[in-house]
Each structure stands twice: as C-alpha cells, then as structure tokens.
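queue> holo job accepted (flavin-adenine dinucleotide)
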Amino acid sequence: MLPTEEAHDLLELVRQIADRELAPRVADFEARGEFPRELLRVLGRAGLLGLPYPTEHGGGGQPYEVYLQVLEELATRWLAVAEGVSVHTLACYPVATHGTDEQRKRLLPDMLGGELLGAYCLSEPSGGSDPASMSTRARRDGDGYLINGTKSWITHAGHADFYNVFCRTGEAGPHGISCLLAHAGTPGLAPQARERTMGLRSSPVAQVVFDDARVPADRLMGDEGTGFRIAMQALDAGRLGIAACAVGLAQAALDYATDYAREREQFGRRIVDFQGLGFLLADMATAVSAARALVLSAARLKDAGLPYRVEAAKAKLFATDAAMRVTTDAVQVLGGYGYVADHPVERYMREAKVLQIVEGTNQIQRLVISRDLATG
Amino acid sequence: MNIVVLVKQVPDSGSERGLSADDKTVDRGSANNVINEMDEYAIEEALKIQEAHGGEVTVLTVGPQQAAESIRKALSMGPDKAMHVVDDALHGSCALATSKVLAAAIGRLSPDLVISGAESTDGRVQVIPHMIAERLGIAALTGARKLVVDGATLTVERQTDEGYEVVTAATPAVVSVWDTINEPRYPSFKGIMAAKKKPVETLSLADLGIAADEVGLSGASSAVVEAGKRPPRQGGTKVTDEGDGGVKLVEFLASEKFV
Ligand SMILES: Cc1cc2nc3c(=O)[nH]c(=O)nc-3n(C[C@H](O)[C@H](O)[C@H](O)COP(=O)(O)OP(=O)(O)OC[C@H]3O[C@@H](n4cnc5c(N)ncnc54)[C@H](O)[C@@H]3O)c2cc1C
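queue> job finished
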C-alpha cells in the first residue's frame, strides 16, 4: 500500500532498476567481495540516495513509509546495496536535522545529489553497545578541531566521500560528545584494511583511524556536547532502515523457498504438499507479513511527527529476528541444496545475522523497550 | 539543435503477443504495452546531443490514447515536451499511411534532426524512417551505431552485417539507431515528477489536414490476409558419438543450411 501516485511511480522505477541492475550481479559481487560503487551511483542518479530529505535541498521529499518500502525492494535483490543506501541516508541525518540553515544549504545538495556516499562513525574497538563511553577525542585548535582515535566497523570505510564522526569534545559520558562531518580526503583520516565478514561481503567494513585529522569548525553539527543525542536520534531512524532491509531479505528467502518447494518432489509428491513443510512455509510467510506491518506502523508514527523510538526498536528487533529465522528455515526447505552456494539461501542466512547486530544489537533494542516499560 | 524523437508504444516483446481475431491488427488491448525498446536508444541519443549542443527535444507519437502512458515514460527520461497524434481513424494504418501522419506532424515541428529506433518490435518493417525522409525531402541515415554532430553535419556509422559504412548528410535529416549506439539512462525520480508537468500537445488527423480515408485499415496499402500460430518447437536431434560424431554434426548443420 502506497500513499501517493508518485510513490507508485517511484517503486516501479526501483523495481526496474533492481531487476535489471542488481539481481543479475549480486551473486558475483558477493562471491568476489567487491563493492558495487558504480551501481550505487546509478541509484544516486535515479534519486534514491536522499529520499526522506526535503526537496529544497535535493532530497526526494518522501515519507519514511515510502522510503522504507524502497529499501525493502532493494533488499530483496541485494542486501548489501540496500544497507548501503540505508547507511548513506543515516549519514545525512545529522546535517539534515541538526545542521544550521547555512550548513544545510552548503552541504546537503552534494550529499543528497547521488554522486557522493557517506559513512557513520560511532562504534569503537572497545565497544559498540555503549557509545557514551567512547574515547575518540576532538580538541579545538584555532578555527577547527583535531580528531584523534579509532572508530571500528565503519561501513563504506575507504569508499565514502564524507564521514560523520562522533567524538569527545568535553566531559566523560554522553554530554561530552559532539558530531563532526569530515571530508574523506582529510589528512590524518585513514581507513584501515577491510574486515573479513561472514556475509554482506560486497559491503566494505573497516576501522578508521584519526590522527590529528583536522575538521573545520563550520562542520560541527549541532552544538558541542549534543553529539550523543544526535547519534541516538539518527539511529532511531536508521533502525527502521535496517528493519526494512530485514523484511526484504526475509521476503526473498520466502519466495525462493516457496518456488523450490512447489517444484521439488519426494515420495511422489511436491514437498510443499507435505504438511510438515507447508506449515513451515506458512510460519515464514506470517513472520514476513508481521515484520512488514510493524516496520510500516513505526514509520507512520515517525511521518506523523509522533514519538517512535520504542516502536522503531520493536520493529528492528522483530524484523531482524524474523529474517534470521526465515532465512534459516529457507535453507531447511532446500535441504542439502540449501547448504551450497549454487542457491542463494545460504547467503541469505549469513546476511541475516548481521542485521541482529548492527545499529544496536537486538539485546540493546530489548533494553530500549524494557526501559520504556520500566519507567512507564 | 532541435530534435524530434519518434516513440512508439508496442506490446512487450518479452510477453505473449498476438493479433486481434476480428481485424488481424496487433492486439494492444490484452498486452502489456511498453516503449518500443529501440526508441529508448533514440531518446538517449537525442538527450546526449542536447546536452552537448543545446536545443529542444520533442517526443512524437502516433498511436491510440493509451500510448499517452509511454509518452510520460519517455518524458521522464528528460525530453522537454511531446506531440501525440491520436485519432480513431488511425486504427490499422499501414507503414505508408503512418509515415504520412508522422511526416505531417514533423513538418509542424520543423526540427533539425529526427531520431527514431531502427525498427519496432511489433511491425519490424524498418521502413518508417526512410519513408519519412522521402516525404520530407531530407536525408535518411539509417541503422546507426554511432552518430556525430558537427555543426550542421551529421556523420553516422551505419551498421551492416559485414561491419559498418560511414555516411554523412547535412541537417535536417532522419537518423534511425540500433541498440548498439548507447546505453539508455534510467529516468530519475525527479524526472518522473517533472514529466507530469511537461506539455503534451494532442492532435487529430484533421489538425494535420489528413483525411480519415487516407489512413486506417480501409486506406491501407497492404493487408493481412491470414495469420496462424507459430508452429510448436520441434524436439531437438540427439547425435550419439559412435566414432562418427563429427561427421553427423556436420551433416546436421548442412541439412539446416548452417554450413
Ligand atoms: C557488518 C557491520 C557493519 C557495521 N557498520 C557500522 C557503521 O557503519 N558504523 C558504526 O558506528 N558501527 C557499525 N557497526 C558496529 C555495530 O553497530 C556494533 O558491532 C554493535 O553496535 C555491537 O557492538 P560491539 O560489536 O562492540 O559488541 P558489544 O557492545 O561488545 O556487545 C557484545 C554482546 O554483548 C551484548 N550486550 C552489550 N551490552 C548489553 C546490555 N546492556 N544488555 C545485554 N546485552 C548486552 C550485545 O548485545 C552483544 O551480544 C557495524 C558492525 C558490523 C558487524
């Protein structure tokens, strides 16, 4: 269900590009672990790298309800590309929502224009779940800041054109953190060797080391000390993106397993006609629909300007757990064929795992939800 | 340089297509109708020339009401405006009659360059560009795999079975293109939104001064007498190699006139 005719047109365009450009290439790129930078430019030129931001700054002016369905559609063909779009969109959030008018006018048109790609640097080697204890520092030096420290698990490291860096400019704890927007070419900003990941291999992830990396003061987002709040708000929105990716991935696994079960015969019957397997598929299908409904209902709260943090946490938790279960069961439906790389379901299963970890592990989502229940 | 691009709506060549039972014209009602694939390359070529040399790009379609959908799609790629000739009397027109209508419409737009696809996937007669050029008294550079614009001189690499020929002409001219000429762009989301506001001029036959009996099924210079279903695929021939596999393969290829 889409709210407008233009959203219909948008989704049709996305399907066309996903079918023609993404679906035929995903298996090769994943096998080689190659980042499809040029394909992200194709998406960018089509206007898909700034969908939920205002048109006056070059965005698509779309509600989250629509943007998330675009992500879902992309994720059914290629999770790493959908995640890339989601991370880029996350990386534009601090400027778009906490930048001054002047900063938005100066920075956003390029960031949303489609040619550039962003990264979001919050996690550190010593901890991702507790970013308030981060140790990366920025100290004021004349008309800029000098950043020192190490960020880890940075998606698009080495390929991004701009990096949002959350770093300590003041006291210990959450109130001493600020958000700086660094150019990729900043001297002293050094992406490290790529991590060797279980899945999502076409998405580059690496540490980024900052060694007296100088960022001009006019690239500080919000006030000094508000960085943690910005990071958490950005993640509320970002988690919806991850949840939508999970729905798309689970849908792909369900579709593949269903097609297979309708073709494959054992004991002289299609395996889908064995109740034991048909019910497994029924549970998978129900999980996908429920996850999608939860994601969209949280998105509609956000679009209406209502509080949505807890609903976003629930959607991320439920959708990514559902994706893990559905992709695991899809391997089961294919039997031995599910365990080999000739079919995509083993890849789906490896890919689903990361969604339970990024942008707040699912334990952290439960923490958000239970804290809300505890305080009422 | 002002350019007119010819865009035809055709039944999707990837799906089941057929002729209407009653008058043996292409069945457009039950088909999934899309922009003729080759025309997307024509649009792309026009846009590239516009980007390099300026001017306006106009989409021209002769076709039923529902072709308006394809016109919007074409406009979403970037052309500035469109002209749609739509008239019930056009139903069943032959290539000659269609070229007359197209030439009359092009005459109104007086472009420097007309670009079309080299063929449409429904009719596949490949003659429309030549006919238009003849009617307008201008050069036809057809089957291009490359087009270079230098002032008022057009140079085309004309694709042939053996290779290519280099042909040149002065504008105005008609150029038809193959899918080897470029890689068509995707529309952008902004392009889709903008296309809804672009002007589309709708004309009837009367507007072009063409009488109804000059076109349509009754005025057609050719007629479809009979049409049948394509014969079902024959089962393949299996060659078992008993030491003479090579000979048998050559015999098979010779019997099918491949060698
Ligand atoms: C492929 C990939 C891409 C990533 N991309 C980015 C990126 O672009 N930018 C970025 O900043 N980060 C990124 N991350 C980092 C990711 O957000 C962190 O890995 C995640 O937040 C967890 O942090 P951690 O790995 O340090 O685990 P830890 O925080 O050490 O957690 C270890 C375990 O302890 C559990 N745990 C921790 N605290 C609690 C608690 N209070 N209650 C219960 N359980 C708890 C966790 O759930 C987890 O199971 C990425 C990670 C991966 C794998």
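queue> Residues 227-263 of chain A form the longest helix (37 residues).
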